[in-house]
Amino acid sequence: MTFRKHQTYVFNKLLIHNKSFIFWPRQTGKSYLLSFIIEQFVNNNNNKDILFIIDDKNNINISKSRIINDIFSSIKKIRINELELVNDNYITFCPLDKNMNYTLHMLSPLLIIYDEFFIYNLDKLSGLNNYISTHNCKCIFTSTSIDLNVVSLLDHNDDFYINIIPYPRLDLKHLLKTLSYKKSELLDYFDLSFIRKIKIEALNYIQKFK
């Protein structure tokens, strides 16, 4: 596992928080990060189900192949829409569709990942939202762009950790104003001031042990 600094930072945050949004532009390594969250999960659990949601079922093979490539040693068997992993854990790939409630009922997943979500109809999230709200599961939603409607729907209890890498057309000032309800420990954004803050915290930590 080779991470860049921002990936290492967020990997540790994802281990702490049960619910998370990752909003990073393309080519910043969020899918790679998810592979190792899955690996960490299967190494620390037995006989559990992981649900990996995608927008288009035609992309199942792309997501499945990426995970196989990243954490090959944790894969035992490869099936059409499923991977059998070490410690008798399973990951099932499926789109967000009318069968979602049935899938959730049958699997009762302990880890839910929705990579690169694009949700034009929030009603499609109702079953998933209810499951996340009523079950003690871990869930991670990622996207290249920020959908505040989805954030508002799922983060109604202010219990999602949100990490943002700003992109050129993003109005960060407006976004942070909209997200001002968040507790400080549940919102990180990688602009220059944040990077300076992390460096200062690291220096202070080092000074403590001198």
Structure description:
With 210 residues, the chain is α/β, with parallel strands linked by helices. It has a single domain (5-208), classed as Rossmann fold (3-Layer(aba) Sandwich), CATH 3.40.50. It has eight helices and nine strands. The protein has helices spanning 5-16, 30-43, 60-70, 100-107, 126-134, 148-154, 172-178, 192-208; strands at residues 19-23, 49-54, 75-78, 82-85, 90-95, 111-114, 138-143, 161-164, 187-189. Strands 3-4-5-2-6-7-1-8-9 form a nine-stranded mixed β-sheet, sandwiched between helices. Strand 8 (161-164), helix 7 (172-178) and strand 9 form a beta-alpha-beta unit. The mean pLDDT is 91.
Keywords:
Rossmann fold; globular; 9 strands; 210 residues
Assign the CATH class. Answer: Alpha Beta
Q: Structural class given helices, strands, pairing?
A: alpha/beta
Using the coordinates shown, work out and report the CATH topology: Rossmann fold
Order of helices and strands: HEHEHEEEHEHEHEHEH
Write down the oligomeric state.
single chain
- Poorly predicted ranges (pLDDT <50, ≥5 residues)? none
For the record, give the distance between the C-alpha atoms at the N and C termini, rounded to a whole number: 30 Å
Provide a count of the helices: 8
Q: How many domains would you count in the coordinates?
A: 1
CATH architecture: 3-Layer(aba) Sandwich
Any idea what the CATH superfamily is called?
P-loop containing nucleotide triphosphate hydrolases
What is the general shape? globular
